[in-house]
Design goal:
This protein is an alpha/beta fold. It is built from ten helices and twelve strands. Bound molecules: NADP nicotinamide-adenine-dinucleotide phosphate (NAP) and glyoxylic acid. NADP nicotinamide-adenine-dinucleotide phosphate (NAP) is lined by residues 70-71, 95, 143-148, 165-168, 198-202, 204-205, 226-228, 252-253, 276, 278-279, 313.
Length: 313
């Protein structure tokens, strides 16, 4: 099987992916776009990492696009994507666990005031604050998919009061309230001390984290955005922080990445910035996930984690 490997990656990263993929599936030919152009009709699948628009239109027999990213929002903006070719996204338990670790670190740091202590150290101030128990802290997780579920399970195991919000109706799970719809969101926001965003970026979720959303949050609550920068209206967050409505924000993702050097988030005392590192794709495990789908394609078996293009995730 000839597989195109392409994306927004440099030559070194391309080589690393090719090595891992070839080790997992030595019987395939792993081709760069330049190689593949010599015989376009041989390309049956593409393994991609946010490829530039137009990269996937020149392969007449393309039967699968396997993303190395969990979020496919950027990929789906490519208007030249062949309409009938299935797009599968990366779903990897290793990534889910990394996300749960990041969410736990952010939640613990906010709950125990460790970001405040770090600031007091910079100011040379020795000052303790009140210590709350985990079961006195309410966390709302937006999104109850691969990442959201892993985060909910990890936080619940630490004793936090966790609720989740999703698109479709679903029953409570393992003691967690799981709701859907705008009314439920308003009610949950009014109760949560910490809100963690793990939604996909779609037409329905773009700009969700805006002034209206912050106005519905509890006074002094905190936001953790681990999903996409396009969910957040930056100026509205800055206003909510300066009015004291929000106490702190942990931001891993931004509208423009890397975050511009002059952006107000960098030096803001109420903002913790991460460089889109909440859950990186792990080359070792992700190569095995991608290859499992390529083998399913080759063997005529059902593909896994195919994106619903209309829904956008
Ligand atoms: P997923 O399994 O597809 O789960 C998405 C969840 O969001 C589902 O529970 C879905 O509800 C819910 N949802 C979608 N649209 C909604 C809406 N309009 N209103 C309410 N809920 C909605 O996705 P995932 O694997 O957990 O990944 C989530 C996102 O995390 C990715 O899209 C990506 O943007 C981000 N991510 C970030 C990093 C990082 O390093 N920062 C790494 C990986 C992923 P239903 O269950 O009802 O369908
Ligand atoms: C990272 O943000 C991903 O979507 O994999």
């Amino acid at each position: 099987m000839d597989v195109l490997l392409c994306g927004d990656i440099d030559a070194e990263e391309w080589r690393r992916w090719r090595e891992a993929l070839a080790a997992a599936m030595p019987e395939a030919r792993w081709l760069s776009a330049d190689d593949a152009r010599r015989q376009p009709s041989a390309v049956l699948a593409a393994v991609v990492a946010n490829p530039p628009p137009g990269s996937l239109q020149a392969w007449p027999r393309l039967a699968l696009v396997q993303s190395l990213w969990a979020g496919v929002d950027r990929l789906l903006t490519d208007r030249s994507l062949p309409p009938d070719v299935p797009i599968a996204r990366m779903v990897d338990p290793v990534m889910n666990r990394a996300m749960a670790e990041t969410a736990l670190w952010a939640t613990l740091s906010l709950h125990r005031g460790f970001f405040d202590y770090a600031r007091r150290q910079r100011e040379g101030r020795w000052q303790q604050h009140e210590q709350r128990r985990a079961d006195e802290v309410s966390v709302l997780v937006l999104g109850f998919g691969q990442m959201g579920r892993a985060v909910v399970a990890t936080l619940a195991a630490q004793g936090y009061r966790v609720a989740a919000w999703r698109h479709t109706a679903g029953a409570a799970e393992a003691g967690t309230r799981v709701g859907h719809g705008a009314g439920v969101l308003q009610a949950e926001l009014a109760q949560a001390d910490i809100v963690i965003n793990l939604l996909p970026l779609t037409d329905a979720t773009r700009d969700l984290l805006d002034a209206k959303f912050f106005a519905a949050m509890r006074h002094g609550a905190a936001l953790v955005n681990l999903a996409r920068g396009g969910h957040l209206v930056d100026e509205d967050l800055l206003a909510a922080l300066s009015s004291g409505r929000l106490r702190h924000a942990v931001l891993d993702v931004f509208r423009g990445e890397p975050l511009a050097s002059g952006h107000a988030f960098w030096g803001h005392d109420g903002v913790t910035v991460l460089p889109h590192a909440a859950a990186l794709t792990d080359v070792r495990s992700a190569a095995a996930v991608a290859v499992a789908n390529l083998r399913a394609l080759r063997d005529g078996l059902p593909l896994k984690h195919v994106v619903d293009r209309v829904r956008g995730y």
